[in-house]
């Protein structure tokens, strides 16, 4: 990770021994190790969350592509019913105060014509 050789590590240990003294050096090393392991765990956690989010986004895009391909290859009858379903969904999403009252002027579908 840091590419520190033996001589650099020895120099750091000598400077630490001179600055902190033999009493506080072991506890300082343990504290540094704990902090370093906490940073590693945090970075691994962030990396795994990012990987999961990217995977979810990729799966969502693949699902959209598959849906769009399947919806383009529908028969005319299924396309009409899909349009009706979309219109019904749009009507449900509108607030009730803005909804238009139903009238008998709607175009009749094949099922309505058979009922007459």
UniProtKB/TrEMBL annotation:
<keyword id="KW-0472">Membrane</keyword>
<protein>
    <recommendedName>
        <fullName>Sec-independent protein translocase protein TatB</fullName>
    </recommendedName>
</protein>
<dbReference type="GO" id="GO:0033281">
    <property type="term" value="C:TAT protein transport complex"/>
</dbReference>
<comment type="function">
    <text>Part of the twin-arginine translocation (Tat) system that transports large folded proteins containing a characteristic twin-arginine motif in their signal peptide across membranes. Together with TatC, TatB is part of a receptor directly interacting with Tat signal peptides. TatB may form an oligomeric binding site that transiently accommodates folded Tat precursor proteins before their translocation.</text>
</comment>
<dbReference type="Pfam" id="PF02416">
    <property type="entry name" value="TatA_B_E"/>
</dbReference>
<comment type="similarity">
    <text>Belongs to the TatB family.</text>
</comment>
<dbReference type="GO" id="GO:0043953">
    <property type="term" value="P:protein transport by the Tat complex"/>
</dbReference>
<comment type="subunit">
    <text>The Tat system comprises two distinct complexes: a TatABC complex, containing multiple copies of TatA, TatB and TatC subunits, and a separate TatA complex, containing only TatA subunits. Substrates initially bind to the TatABC complex, which probably triggers association of the separate TatA complex to form the active translocon.</text>
</comment>
<keyword id="KW-0812">Transmembrane</keyword>
<dbReference type="InterPro" id="IPR018448">
    <property type="entry name" value="TatB"/>
</dbReference>
<feature type="region of interest" description="Disordered">
    <location>
        <begin position="89"/>
        <end position="116"/>
    </location>
</feature>
<keyword id="KW-0811">Translocation</keyword>
<keyword id="KW-0653">Protein transport</keyword>
<feature type="compositionally biased region" description="Basic and acidic residues">
    <location>
        <begin position="99"/>
        <end position="116"/>
    </location>
</feature>
<keyword id="KW-1133">Transmembrane helix</keyword>
<dbReference type="GO" id="GO:0008320">
    <property type="term" value="F:protein transmembrane transporter activity"/>
</dbReference>
<keyword id="KW-1003">Cell membrane</keyword>
<dbReference type="InterPro" id="IPR003369">
    <property type="entry name" value="TatA/B/E"/>
</dbReference>
<keyword id="KW-0813">Transport</keyword>
């Amino acid at each position: 990770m840091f590419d520190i050789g033996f001589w650099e590590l020895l120099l750091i240990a000598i400077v630490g021994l001179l600055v902190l003294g033999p009493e506080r050096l072991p506890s300082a090393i343990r504290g540094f190790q704990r902090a370093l392991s906490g940073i590693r765990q945090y970075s691994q956690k962030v990396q795994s969350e990012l990987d999961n989010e990217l995977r979810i986004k990729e799966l969502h895009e693949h699902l959209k592509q598959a849906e769009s391909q399947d919806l383009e290859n529908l028969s005319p009858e299924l396309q009409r019913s899909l349009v009706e379903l979309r219109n019904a969904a749009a009507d449900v999403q509108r607030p009730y105060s803005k909804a238009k009252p139903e009238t008998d002027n709607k175009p009749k579908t094949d099922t309505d014509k058979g009922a007459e």
